[in-house]
Amino acid sequence: MRSTRSALLLALAGASIAFFLAQPLCGQPDSAQPDSTQEDGSGLPPVMRIDGEPVSADEFGRWLVAMLAARTAKSFAEGWVVEREADRRGVAPEESEIRARMEAEIGERVEGAFLGRREDWIAELERTGRSEAGYRLQRATEVRPELAATALTRLERVVPEDKVVRDWELFYGPQGRSYELLAMSFPVVVVTPPAETPRERAEEARRRAFREQEDRARAARDRILAGEDFVRVAQGSGAECANAACTLQVGARFRDAGWPDVFLDELARLAPGAPSQPVYARGGYRVVQLVSCVDTPLESVRDELEQRLIARGPEQDEIGRTWIALTQGLRFELQPGLFEPQRASSDNEPEPTAIVIEGTPVPRGVFARWLLAVRGEPMASTFAEHWLVQRKARSLGIEATEDEVERRVRSYVERLVASGYKGSRERWLAYLALGGRNEAGFLRELRVRMRTDLLCERMILRERQVTGDDVRRRWLELFGEGGRWIEARVIAVEVRLPALEQGLAREAVDALVEQAEEDARTKAEELVLRLHEGEDFAALARSHSDDEDTRKRGGALSGRFRPDAWPSEVASALEALEPGEIAGPLRHGPRWWIFEVTRVKLVSFDEARAEIEAELRERPPAAGDLAGYRNSLLKEARVEVLTAMFR
Known about the structure:
The structure is a single chain. The protein has helices spanning 4-13, 17-20, 57-88, 95-114, 118-127, 132-154, 161-172, 199-225, 230-237, 261-269, 298-312, 316-327, 364-396, 402-420, 425-434, 439-463, 468-479, 506-532, 537-544, 548-551, 568-575, 605-618, 623-636; strands at residues 48-50, 53-55, 177-187, 279-281, 284-295, 332-334, 353-357, 360-363, 484-494, 582-588, 591-602, 639-641. The two termini are 28 Å apart. The protein has 647 residues and is mainly alpha-helical.
């Protein structure tokens, strides 16, 4: 007799990968829309139509696998192992349990965020490109291993002692002490000063606000020590009370959660009837008086606490430890069969293997259904954008060859490794491995993205219109009204923040930051002085500049000074200089900059027109422009979701 888990695997394996690798783009599936009888060569109907054109299940499936299989394989493998162990030990979650958990989540979401209006929740899903069917499919798939891990944790569970102690203090107070308190509060209100207020004056106003409220709290405490009634003093001093009786807590016990240790320590030292020292907590100075205290030993309530914890079930940290114990060091590997084109199913042909987990082959249909459920719908609009880009490129005769895509991929990886991993491919590969990925999977996804980007760039460039006004506007950005071509050298002095120790007060952190700013500015001013005294700019740049790109060239900027690449105050300063003159130090980003103009020549609009026009026509679109272009195609398209999507 097959186990529940084995039966599930066989059932999923019988489903083709292509069928399950498709999701609706937005909203609910159109139940009135009949499926087209046209098949995609695998014996399956299409899962959607875009502007009337059928999209095959195999096409969507291969795209989704290329984009996501490598980065999601680890999550799939972990859940698979957890479910297998739950099945082996006879605690696999029942479908009714999964449905109940999902319904509870949905009910809580609808009640809490939408005031019980289910139609508003569904409308919100549709606005975010989701559907109720897609959401349910995703959560059911995610909940299954979560419930399996919970059931495994419950087996032979021993309630952790730290949770018993935690609940003891939660229900009976710190160390089992329940306090009844009277309290008064003197809130500290710091008024935000105008932006032009000097820093020193603003800080003094802040300290004065704290001193004033602390002094009021001390005066109130002195009156209580002199014999006056606590509540009468609180009411007469203008202190804020928790309620008319001036008690701190609501209910029978003071709850310590959220109160700082300095306040709790002071509370522990109090004798009945004595007022505390003023203590700053929760936005103001507090003075409290202990009315009574009840001690509840842990052992006297241990059974009650343990039974409550057992009834509530294991908590997330316990479940997490179970998960880690089962998945730590997990071995898995994606197989070539996952990336093969879909073929018509045959009773005599076994389902290709998608992934091998701890030596066990997992059929392609199993991995496919999981991938569809957890990531398909959120990625569906991205698929549609890619599909529309390729369709439009074909209609215009625009192509991106394999060699061009590979060159773009290599260039991207080289920049990524250089900028993010200090030029070390080993570090990059190690980072991928941490997420269960490898270079092959990363490149597979990158090729899809780069092909789409290349096609988008070429279509944008073909459609780009450059007017005379565009050219003149760019000329003004580059050369200003006077048409000045400026070449310059720079020295950069970094503001180096020190390593900050944990627990430093805000004032101490501000002082360290201020000192780092001052040190950098002082060094920059000293370099300017040395330049005015005749030292060579290039030599100082090579010795002292923190800008790696220009330091090796003696500070020389590559090409001309581009005013559009710098803040207006920097551009204005350099445009006013003649060759040999120095500007700075000027602050830009985390550095102080010193400039020397080395050459100035006048460039008329007519002289620069052809170069600027070519630049505007050929300048690669920014990433945001590519995204906007793809999105514009999607907005203009008509996408129909077919019922085959959810069979």
